[in-house]
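S.,

As promised, the FE2/S2 (inorganic) cluster run. Input:
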Amino acid sequence: MCLVNEIDYGTPASKSDRMVTLAIDGREVTVPEGTSIMRAAREAGIEVPKLCANDMVKAFGSCRLCLVEIDGRAGTPASCTTPVAEGLKVFTTTERVNAIRRGIMELYMSDHPADCPACAEGDCEMARMAEKVGLTEIRYGRDGENHVVPRIHGDVNPHFREPDLSNPYFAYDPAKCIVCSLCVRACAEVQGTFALTVEGRGFESRIAASMNTPFFDSECVSCGACVQACPTGALREKSVIEKGMPEWSAVTTCAYCGVGCSFKAEMRGEEVVRMVPYKDGKANHGHSCVKGRFAWGYTNHKDRILNPMIREKVTDPWREVTWEEAFAHIAKEFRRIQYQYGRGAIGGITSSRCTNEETYLVQKLVRQGFGNNNVDTCARVCHSPTGYGLRMTYGTSAGTQDFDSVDYSDVIVIIGANPTDAHPVFGSRIKKRIREGARLIVIDPRRTDLVRSPHVKADYHLALRPGTNVAVLTALAHVIVSEGLVNEAFVRERCDWDEFQDWASFVLQPENSPEAVEKVSGVPAEMIRAAARLYATGGNAAIYYGLGVTEHSQGSTAVMAIANLAMATGNIGRPGVGVNPLRGQNNVQGSCDMGSFPHEFPGYRHVSDDATRAIYEALWGVKLDSEPGLRIPNMLDAAVDGTFKGIYIQGEDILQSDPNTKHVAAGLAAMECVVVQDLFLNETANYAHVFLPGSTFLEKDGTFTNAERRINRVRKVMEPKSGYADWEVTQKLAQAMGLDWNYTHPSQIMDEIAATTPSFAGVSYELLDRVGSVQWPCNEKAPLGTPVMHVNGFVRGKGRFMRTAYVATDEKVGPRFPLLLTTGRILSQYNVGAQTRRTANSMWHPEDVLEIHPHDAEDRGIRDGDYVKLASRTGETTLRARITDRVAPGVVYTTFHHPATQANVVTTEYSDWATNCPEYKVTAVQVSPSNGPTDWQRDYREHTEKSRRIIYAEPAE
Ligand code: SF4
Ligand code: SF4
Ligand code: FES
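Predicted complex:
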């Protein structure tokens, strides 16, 4: 095992199509025009010394270490800032440049701590460069002016500054800084936050976080780009300082959001030392956010449950048992329940946090072992409308582009998504494209960072009233049709013309005009018109959307409205355009692909399809049910009705993540055998009879599929702490139930998936290990996958326009509940917080707060930071208020990361008409001053996470 080392080419790649040939140290090299001499040399295998350049940011030319000589040109130009030219003859190691380099390095080293641990441990590019240029002695000593020692000859050194240790994950030591500004440029160019600056002049220069505050209090978002860029150890991970340098590494995939960033897990033995974003990762190209980069400490958290546990009644204390006892108990209970109540009385829930292979096994267990289709997934509560809407219009249930496509977009539309918080690495990509000149339309009730942040400003922010997406999207279509902005050639060639005409006459109806929609949505008609014109005529236009579109009673209608807009304007089927759902969890796409829904086998094939059933019946040796099974809400309803009695929940906390907590609790409480498998005793486990320990992404092999349909490898870097990876647990359970499963590695599960699922036919671990990742469909027609879909035609044949009549949600504001609550994520936390709350990320977001507009706060006598009661017709909770005009009057907003808040106590049972995706984004509420937490919240806070138990519904006797 060794460290995965990536080459740094010194400057970014040029995108030019024109090629240039030159000679470097006698070697001929051909590269795209615009390439730097430094990069051309590296591509020819020649490493030019450098300090202030890397291939993630534009060259700056400050350190002068990279100079070269060029035949026929005077002087010694910097190779990082000098572009190649046809016929150049470049020399990188002449005596002259070698001598200059040694002199430069000597000056740098004279002001560098002699006892720098980073140098000693081999974590310092500067030390490596000193050796490379042949520096053997430093003639100037360290007694003169320097940044290194607090006192010189007993006097306070005016240049010395204390290290900044405020960030929980990295330290900044000014004494080691050479002011190369790589960190400043990485923060600006890669991350797009512009939090860092160079303060002072000349010898006084220092790196300062914005407003000269400590890193922790600054605008810094802790993405780690600065630490990664720093060549000196001035910025360094605290984990490396504490644990020492890594000994080996493996490339794996982040287990947080749907961007699916690739990381090198850098290890000492079985201990993670740091996670370094992988430049060859095709989703992130070497960038990361605070979650994937730093928030992995939960894997070792003391709260992890490492032994299976059983209890007869949920009021009993837990009893640790062996794995064998647990499997035998579950199998006996599930078989008893089926014997007593019928085959359909049990079911399973797959997890979008687990691998494709694990998800596949859970649905297989339900279909083959339970003999029914009662399997559903947490994707139900986020992106099921995407599946439905895109399948109806385009024929396939996935986003149309790869992330790189955004580099070709001229207009970017963000609807109901907050990428800089929820999909941060892609958020940075969007910001970069905006800085390059793309135009931006944001449709969101809240003023997200993309609406206005350093160097980014939306051209139009359509701050619509929650629940009116469909009205606004259809009004955009009204403008496009009524003003003759339809791409008729595209529509005639690629779409069903009759259906288009029907749709066009529908959108032209007066109730869909911007003026009419202004009344329901609050968005000025002129702004709707201007945004529609920009989308239709601004060049390549791409739509990205999130849960602010799907989690509505008309979620599926809104997805279809988006698909209609792209078809009508011809913005589909090439780079730079498309319809792109930003998936919430790491494997939402994969869990849907793997047949987690009660009506679909893997690959979105309906259970009633005889040919598909025949494939699995032949392989699994059982007769399969042709009737769709129960969705999660139906399972809970059936449990309350007494007909559904047992459930296997892998890696989900439905009590916290599903709407109407009391109803979920009532359903769980009515069951006789609830099996929960997770890393921690989650809220759902309060109602469990069996708890099975889960494994983290570091403890198993597998694959995740990200928002761009990219199948990425997850690689095991440590043994499962509980003894088994999640796929092994499901297999053992299946064996206990009498099934003949004998997988010895997840690659065999993928082979079965590929053999039975046309869109995965070409996928194998061998392929993924060879090419890195592929986007499905990956089969005979597309052996290396499909970055952009619907290029020459829609998957379903002709694109299908769908009518999208706006129907207001039944969730209405009124005198009792006059405000609309909408919810979302924050950068540092992730979903129900089970992982991120167990890391230092909680320092940024220790509790959920309620954003409320100053007018609404004033009307209620609420001050910033006050406790407020948030009440709806389903429940109430208490949290602190933050007064801000990010939300419009009449709208309040909160996150749902902390169980002590339980935002879903107030959300309702309304859901999408087509898929049952809950309407999280619209709840009528009242906000009033409060003295503090409610009783149940106080109980919660008083107990440790392991011992607490909140009762939302009494269990059945
Ligand atoms: S902290 Fe590191 S990257 Fe930033 S200027 Fe100093 S040496 Fe360069
Ligand atoms: S953007 Fe998403 S996938 Fe990437 S590091 Fe952050 S949480 Fe992980
Ligand atoms: S690397 Fe070229 S000037 Fe610093």
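Residues 254, 256-257, 259-261, 284, 288-289, 291-292, 423-425 surround iron/sulfur cluster (ligand 2) (CB under 6 Å). The two ends are 55 Å apart (CA to CA).

- D.
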